[in-house]
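Incident log, structure service

09:12 report received: a user says their structure output differs between two submissions of the same chain.
09:20 pulled the input from the user's history:
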Amino acid sequence: MTRLILLSLLLAVPALAAEPLKVGALSAAPGQRVSGWLEIPAGVDEATRVPVSVVHGAQPGPVLALIAGTHGYEYPPILALQRLLPQLDAARMKGSVILVHMVAPAAFYGRRIYYSPDGKNQNRVYPGRLDGSQSERIAHAITTEVIERATHVVDVHGGDGNEDLRTYSYWQLSGQPAVDAASREMVLAWGFDHVVVDRERPKDKGASVYTSNTAVLRGKPAITVESGAMGRSDEELVAAHLRGARSLLAHLGILDGPSARIEQPIWFEPAEVVRAKHTGLWQAERAVRDVVTAGTPLGRVTDPFGNLLEEVRAPFAGVLLYVVGTPPVTAGEPLAFVATPLPGEPRP
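09:34 re-ran on a clean worker, output below:
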């Protein structure tokens, strides 16, 4: 494992301290911090602009991209990056940070759950398309202007406006030993004690679908982290992300800070999102953090008249990491996330 971690450091090609770091039209010289907009031109629908900050360290090192606001109703990640920005002193940094403050502004300002105004889930359209709808054009810009320029990537999430969620993270295994080893160290450095082992992401670079998967398939260590629930922005939910980001910066050697590293996480595998088969009204019968057995009733979906459409049961024994906490549900959408704790370390 130590050899793999050392090899993974070779993946982190440092930014050249003598050259500016550019993201779209933004350009930061070494030792400089700039904020502005990643412009998304109009296409089949209207133009938009994504708020971005580039903090280019005075000395070379890794380039960490922290990407928030992929889903508009997930507020703690957005607030955490806003608070992180003034703490980043480019003059003291050995490496650089790209902050994407809000990937999907129209979803944020429209208070939209899951979907942007073009009807697409922003975290299901990567690597995006230049000639696609707004979500796809945003994904293309994030892929080419942020992920491609980074050496490490964190997709920062929280429970959407309908999800009662406990704090946890994902360690994605891609079959690339050095990348996977570096991603494992990142997820431990972030410090959330519940970690889902994910082996099921697509392997096609041209249809990567998810933000973090887009990075991993390009040979860049990446993780996804979750802190937030039901559209809340409580201090502890925001602070968890801020603490994790500072800890990861220290782990990567970019900027000194307190470590939140978790030494004995609870690993979860398998894990499954339980989805609705019908459109209707969801009534949960179990709560987040509940321990369930295979077949445990999780809730019911009814039609508007109260007639039963389906009874939803746990597919296997595990813990509920999130449960949808509001009635509206459309066929195919999530209802709950069940994950089974591993008795020990996950296999590579």
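09:41 both user submissions now match this output. Likely a transient worker issue. Closing.
09:42 reviewer note: The domain at 271-341 is CATH 2.40.50.100 (OB fold (Dihydrolipoamide Acetyltransferase, E2P)). Residues 1-16 have pLDDT under 50 and may be disordered.
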